[in-house]
Structure formats: structure tokens, C-alpha cells
Amino acid sequence: MCVGTCEAPVSELQTVRVQVTMALGVLLVVIITLIICYITYEHVSHRQKRAWLNGPSWVVPIIGSITDMVRRPHKYYTEQQKFGDISWNSVMGRFVVFCAT
Questions:
Q1: DSSP state for residue 86 in the 8-state scheme
Q2: CB–CB of 90/53 below 8 Å?
Q3: pLDDT tens-digit profile of 54-93?
Q4: Which of 21, 70, 9 is nearest to 91 (CA)?
Q5: Are 97 and 55 in contact, with CB atoms under 8 Å apart?
Q6: Which of these, 55, 63, 60, lies nearest to 80 by C-alpha position?
């Protein structure tokens, strides 16, 4: 008979599994938070750099507009020239200034 609380004995292996699962959960939260912070930093820094330059109002974080450049290079540069003689864009996370004549 049990008096008070009756619990089955917990093995050390179960305790270790719970601790590892909790540690992985915390690690996942930290990694996701760092990724969100990096994307936010990149977006804010691009907005500051492009202060008066013409260019796209939004680009995909990290990869930028590299997919358009690779798939349709002529159309990409033609579209970029529509922004004006001096414009900006993001290519693989790098801030690029285009000068057209």
C-alpha cells in the first residue's frame, strides 16, 4: 500500500531522454530566434543603405534577387534599368548599386 503519492521508479535513461529533449527544444528556439534577428538586421541595413536610391521596395532575405538574375538575365537588367540611372538591388544578401548609362 502507498501512503501519499505512489510513483513508479523513473529510470535514469528516461530522465536523460527528457533532459536531452528539453535541451534540443531550447536549442531550436535559440536558432530560430537568431535567424529571425539576422533577417531583421539585413532588412533594416538595406533600408538604411538605399536611403535615396531607387530600387525594389522588397527583396527576399538572404538570397535577394539572384533567382531572377539567373533565370532571365536580360529581363533582370532591363527591369533594373527602369528604376533609373542609379539603382540598388540585393544579390545573395549583398547590397549592389547599379549604374546605367
A1: E
A2: no
A3: 888 888 878 888 888 899 999 988 888 899 889 988 888 8
A4: 70
A5: no
A6: 55
Distance CA 64, CA 97 (A): 13
Phi first, then psi, for residue 54 (nearest 5°) are: -80, 155
Cα distance between residue 28 and residue 23, in whole Å: 9
Whether residue 54 contacts residue 84, with contact meaning beta carbons closer than 8 Å, is answered with: yes
String of b and e for 23-37 (b: at least 16 CB within 10 Å)? eeeeeeeeeeeeeee
- Check: CB of residue 61 under 8 Å from CB of residue 91: no
Look up cell 527576399; give the residue: 60
The single-letter DSSP state of residue 84 is -
Strand partners, 89: 96
